[in-house]
């Protein structure tokens, strides 16, 4: 669901590109330098082009929302027909989304919520459930406003954050956003701590199954050993998101300086 925002921005603005202010600034400089050689008709056409160079395409977004709504209604109709003997849609939502939101299963996984909710008092459980699930909602709008000109990178950031804060993460979540990371190799060429992140991911991928085996199967370890690998994994994802976003914004600032020079 969180990827709807990058998809809408992708349909509206197109693929990743520098901020539209750079294009407007460059076009205004070119038009001002050649203003003496332009006729009034050409100058009016150039101003019209400048004003419409990066407008948001609402038509494609409307078509996307319409087709998604039709597809969603069709899927819900078929699901209600097939599940009418086992509780219907309400039972399906309770056992899928409800299971994720309530964090009922505290089996050890690569995340950190299972350990936290195993230790928290039942009186505060609902409060911390709201805090953890609402935390990601506060990041959607600021990131969308700041990275609206780079919807693909915004999707990468959203996937990384959701895989870090979700109730039941898996290794496949990291494989998804790490696969998208190659799309921004030029923009993130100067990213800090890249070697540290590479070694950290390798170390966590090696130590996590070892600690799980020592705790669950051999009984020679405890939960803190395995939780330490999950905590290190969450910290690595945090560093990756922060450093990649900082490098992308730094790349845009460098382009702005080159255009103004």
Automatic annotation (TrEMBL):
<feature type="transmembrane region" description="Helical">
    <location>
        <begin position="223"/>
        <end position="242"/>
    </location>
</feature>
<feature type="transmembrane region" description="Helical">
    <location>
        <begin position="191"/>
        <end position="211"/>
    </location>
</feature>
<keyword id="KW-0256">Endoplasmic reticulum</keyword>
<comment type="pathway">
    <text>Glycolipid biosynthesis; glycosylphosphatidylinositol-anchor biosynthesis.</text>
</comment>
<feature type="transmembrane region" description="Helical">
    <location>
        <begin position="152"/>
        <end position="171"/>
    </location>
</feature>
<feature type="transmembrane region" description="Helical">
    <location>
        <begin position="97"/>
        <end position="117"/>
    </location>
</feature>
<comment type="similarity">
    <text>Belongs to the PIGU family.</text>
</comment>
<keyword id="KW-0812">Transmembrane</keyword>
<feature type="transmembrane region" description="Helical">
    <location>
        <begin position="56"/>
        <end position="77"/>
    </location>
</feature>
<keyword id="KW-1133">Transmembrane helix</keyword>
<dbReference type="GO" id="GO:0006506">
    <property type="term" value="P:GPI anchor biosynthetic process"/>
</dbReference>
<protein>
    <recommendedName>
        <fullName>GPI transamidase subunit PIG-U</fullName>
    </recommendedName>
</protein>
<keyword id="KW-0337">GPI-anchor biosynthesis</keyword>
<dbReference type="GO" id="GO:0016255">
    <property type="term" value="P:attachment of GPI anchor to protein"/>
</dbReference>
<dbReference type="InterPro" id="IPR009600">
    <property type="entry name" value="PIG-U"/>
</dbReference>
<keyword id="KW-0472">Membrane</keyword>
<dbReference type="GO" id="GO:0042765">
    <property type="term" value="C:GPI-anchor transamidase complex"/>
</dbReference>
<feature type="transmembrane region" description="Helical">
    <location>
        <begin position="123"/>
        <end position="145"/>
    </location>
</feature>
<dbReference type="Pfam" id="PF06728">
    <property type="entry name" value="PIG-U"/>
</dbReference>
């Amino acid at each position: 669901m969180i990827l709807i925002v990058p998809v809408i921005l992708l349909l509206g603005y197109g693929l990743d590109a520098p901020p539209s202010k750079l294009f407007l600034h460059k076009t205004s400089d070119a038009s001002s330098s050649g203003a003496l050689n332009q006729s009034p008709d050409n100058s009016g056409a150039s101003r019209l082009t400048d004003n419409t160079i990066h407008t948001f395409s609402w038509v494609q977004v409307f078509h996307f929302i319409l087709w998604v709504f039709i597809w969603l209604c069709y899927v819900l109709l078929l699901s209600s027909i097939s599940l009418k003997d086992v509780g219907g849609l309400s039972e399906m939502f309770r056992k899928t989304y409800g299971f994720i939101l309530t964090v009922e299963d505290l089996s050890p996984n690569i995340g950190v919520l299972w350990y936290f909710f195993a230790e928290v008092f039942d009186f505060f459980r609902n409060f911390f459930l709201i805090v953890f699930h609402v935390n990601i909602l506060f990041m959607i709008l600021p990131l969308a406003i700041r990275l609206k000109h780079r919807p693909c990178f915004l999707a990468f950031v959203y996937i990384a954050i959701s895989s870090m804060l979700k109730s039941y993460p898996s290794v496949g979540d990291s494989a998804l956003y790490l696969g998208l990371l190659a799309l921004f190799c030029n923009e993130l060429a100067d990213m800090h701590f890249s070697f540290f992140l590479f070694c950290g991911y390798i170390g966590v991928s090696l130590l996590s199954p070892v600690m799980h085996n020592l705790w669950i199967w051999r009984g020679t370890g405890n939960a803190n050993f395995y939780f330490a690998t999950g905590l290190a994994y969450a910290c690595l994802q945090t560093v990756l998101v922060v450093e990649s976003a900082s490098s992308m914004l730094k790349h845009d600032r460098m382009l702005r300086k080159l255009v103004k020079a």
